[in-house]
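hey so i finally got around to running the thing on that chain from the lab meeting. sorry it took forever, my laptop kept dying and i had to restart like 3 times. anyway pasting the input first so we r on the same page abt which one it is
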Amino acid sequence: MRFNRMTLPLSIASLLLAAISAPLPAQPPPPAPGERPARAETAVSAEQAMNQINRNLRRLQRQAADSTKKVDNLKLVNEAQRGAVSAKGAIPRGPWSEETDAAKQAQALEPYRRHLIALTRKLLDLEVAILDGKNEDATTLLADIQTLKLEAHKEMGIKDDD
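ok and heres what got predicted. didnt touch it at all, straight out
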């Protein structure tokens, strides 16, 4: 098929018009008043998020002192931070996950959230130390994070796998 100066712009215009006028995918209906919206299918469980944190921190502990791995270390810290934020928004398995009263569940989960907030702060400090090239500080912060983890797990009665 040959295009001349007039038919090519018209062909492009008709394609754009078809794309614009295509129906949008249907949105789920909003929840009824007093109901919680359905969780997205891609929601991360607390256990998956914790595994993400642990996996990235283990790798970081092996290479934190190596200043040549700064870019990789920053990626690892970022992934650990993402895991911490995901974990904070998830409900871990345990007696608090079976609580049906939302207020009681929130009260039971408060220490869990506070520990994850403290972890997130340490991870931000770790990121700054790596950015500044302070590898010794980064190593110290990693040890602090490990201590924080052990204390939080002990307080919440969580058995460590590693």
